[in-house]
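so i finally got all the pieces together for this one. its two components total, 526 residues if u count the protein bits. some of the lines might not be protein, just check the labels. i wanna see the whole assembly predicted at once instead of chain by chain like last time, that was a mess tbh
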Amino acid sequence: MTFSVTVLGSSSAIPTLVRNPSAHLLNADERLFLIDCAEGTQLALRRNRIHFQRIRNIMISHLHGDHFYGLIGLLTSLHLLGRKDEMHIYAHPMLESIINIQLEVSKTTLLYPLYFHPLNPDVHEVIFEDNRVIAESFPLLHSVPTCGFVFREKLKYRRYLQKRSYAYCSDTAYTESIIPYVKETSLLYHEATFMDKMAKAAAEKMHSTTVEAATLAMKAGVRQLMIGHYSARYDDLAPLLEEAQAIFPQTILAEDGKTIPIG
Amino acid sequence: MTFSVTVLGSSSAIPTLVRNPSAHLLNADERLFLIDCAEGTQLALRRNRIHFQRIRNIMISHLHGDHFYGLIGLLTSLHLLGRKDEMHIYAHPMLESIINIQLEVSKTTLLYPLYFHPLNPDVHEVIFEDNRVIAESFPLLHSVPTCGFVFREKLKYRRYLQKRSYAYCSDTAYTESIIPYVKETSLLYHEATFMDKMAKAAAEKMHSTTVEAATLAMKAGVRQLMIGHYSARYDDLAPLLEEAQAIFPQTILAEDGKTIPIG
């Protein structure tokens, strides 16, 4: 069974011609989870030939635009394309109002049931569970309430194998408080908006550096680290990768369109 | 002086890999007007190397998502890139609430003054005027309140020349009530979502066909017609162009990234 993540956007705040802002598509044993949904995500899904009607759960980490401005367009397109299946959104409770006001002004009544599940950014809790996957949210450290997520495989046939897991931490300042939640995950995605020499700017903006992401990965004992959410100032990402790998060699770069098999 | 329009999106409701939904950039004697702003418009502006900080006025025809879902992202990016200049939005009054709720949840206070000018979709009125350009709105015939726009050159040095003008009519069913407003314009953009054999579907959805757009152009005596807002069902646009040209030979196709000099 597949367990992989496809990067739909690796940029921070502003989209560039080569990098969309945040969105990841996790295929966890054939359950498709969309994590964050920046402007342009529906096109990125098409570009990566992901059958987006198969997505049933969308997790939104926080309400900065580069993490959710594409959601209303995706939900509308799913409707126009005839979706009938349920869709579940896990997000800050205000997102429901934002989506609903936009559906109302366009006189759109969705053809499919849409459920909002409010996230509590102050606690660690299970937010989704079925027979194959369990997903948890936990607090990150950012300028607005923000959740990290971890998805763990729980298939019976993998009883004697190492179970696979994926943790998503964006956006966040460096904080060791998240270590218990992401400990020993197969793949940790941790934002690295800036290089080390901009550590001061990173702290002020409550973002992380390459060095901080790598340090966190090392301390949490994860198998692999993926960095991303790059500032638009970086055209060439090789120096970011080098900085992180100097501390945590099993680091890879998030790049738009890249699919990473997990475990 | 330049008088031209750049097509940033020529698709109807759903973006495709080759066509964005509606957005046009009018350069009217070096005043840049953005007309509609679908998801992905900020990237389309970049792709077409349009310096988007020069835009000072944005007209939104109506509140269907394929005409405004890209606005919040564009306004946010302008802010993040340090804009200080005024921005003016001409739209249905509900758009102000939609933008403001999204700025509030992200705790964003724009660095630049943003003014909303409510449009009245029931009347024909002047909505913008300076020493070079005058812009008017007028009622279209659609399933939600919708405005057409016409921009007319008024430069003194063109006193003895034919003045140039651009009319934008999307979305609308066929209606001859708009003829007085678009009469003899240099370039009329009129939506043509469907081909003639889908005339019934077009009428039901309050959209137009190629034949209707061409008929309107002929009756209004415009110099040139541009059709667009194509249904995603059409991969090849040549048959749409043929149908329209059979009635009004001076018809061209809206295509993403195409710039049309006017007059």
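The longest strand of chain B covers residues 3-9.
The mean pLDDT of chain B is 95.
anyway lmk what u think
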